[in-house]
Design brief:
seven-stranded mixed sheet, five-stranded mixed sheet, 26% helix
């Protein structure tokens, strides 16, 4: 089975070197954002007990403890390899999947299926213009020059704008055909296109917005929101192994998002406390040796735990402990 992982700037040809292959998008080492995405993907695999070692600049790594080959590919290529059944599972951005589907619509036999949100890599595909420029909203860019690495999604977006038309000057309500917006493809450095006079606007990914602001740009519309996702082929070579790996990754994500909260509380206050910590299914309640006191154990979202502890203390809970979860299933 083959699993694609985010890689560097190119991918080399590969073959299935075992009964199944996974690919993980490969990301440029010098790019901080992509490097973080790659490391997050590696962390998921490590937490799932996918044991591998990648030799320097080698785009394929055999997994030691499973019949799996990891294939390191550019993130944009992963929907193609998975969608055509060359590899079984892939980790890439939702933006790349939507862009691929915009140019190559999926069919009953082709295209990748989304398995789960991986909980990292959040960003937005934004229409951007110069901060001090004349354009204020997307319709102002109709008929202008737009640069992007996402030609399919950008063409779809401006096609919808053009189809909306304009009310004619006589007020009758006829629609007039808009000038066709000129979409230009750039493989990188899209953010400098406006400053260099190549584009009137761009469509590009924004994470923190620092790069956008550093280039004197502002966002005027969100085309799509993106995040890292796990996808699978519709024709996996080993469906049982695909499901096993997906289940392991799902458990690692749950462990990253939740902590285990344990506390003691008087039985008279139990119903109030369990409303604060309902758990994923239900809290575990154990009778203590001391009469009318119980111990409660419940999974709580990590981002909410400080507030939950405050509320538990206020309602009479004692001996409140928070434990990290190594894995979950």
């Amino acid at each position: 089975m083959g699993l694609p992982v985010p890689k560097e700037d190119c991918c080399s040809p590969f073959r299935k070197v075992s009964s199944s292959s996974y690919s993980i998008p490969s990301l440029p080492d010098q790019t901080v954002i992509e490097g973080r995405l790659q490391q997050a993907a590696f962390d998921l695999l490590t937490g799932s007990d996918i044991q591998f070692r990648r030799e320097h600049r080698n785009d394929i790594a055999n997994v030691k403890n499973h019949h799996i080959a990891l294939v390191f590919l550019p993130a944009a290529d992963i929907p193609t390899f998975v969608g055509e059944g060359n590899v079984d599972l892939g980790i890439t951005g939702l933006d790349q999947i939507l862009e691929h589907e915009a140019t190559t619509p999926p069919t009953s036999d082709s295209g990748a299926e989304q398995v789960l949100d991986l909980g990292f890599g959040s960003c937005k595909l934004e229409v951007q213009v110069l901060e001090n420029g004349p354009y204020r909203e997307p319709k102002d860019l109709i008929g202008r020059n737009i640069c992007t690495s996402f030609v399919g999604l950008t063409e779809q977006f401006f096609a919808r704008l053009e189809e909306q038309g304009q009310v004619s000057s006589d007020g009758i309500g006829r629609t007039e055909k808009q000038l066709k917006t000129k979409i230009k493809y750039l493989s990188g450095s899209v953010e400098v296109a406006c400053a260099l006079g190549v584009a009137d606007g761009i469509v590009d990914l924004v994470e923190s917005g620092d790069t956008m602001r550093a280039n004197g740009l502002k966002a005027i519309h969100t085309v799509e929101e993106s995040k890292a996702v796990l996808i699978k082929s519709k024709h996996a070579s080993d469906p049982r192994l695909v499901d096993k790996v997906a289940s392991r990754i799902r458990g690692v994500i749950a462990a990253q998002q939740f902590v285990l909260c344990q506390y003691n509380i008087h039985r008279d206050l139990l119903s109030m406390a369990t409303k604060i910590t309902p758990g994923k299914r239900a809290p575990t309640i154990t009778q203590l040796d001391e009469a009318d006191w119980v111990a409660v154990s419940s999974m709580v979202e990590k981002k909410k735990i400080a507030t939950v502890m405050d509320e538990l203390a206020s309602c009479g809970a004692t001996d409140i402990l928070v434990l990290n979860i190594g894995n979950s299933r």
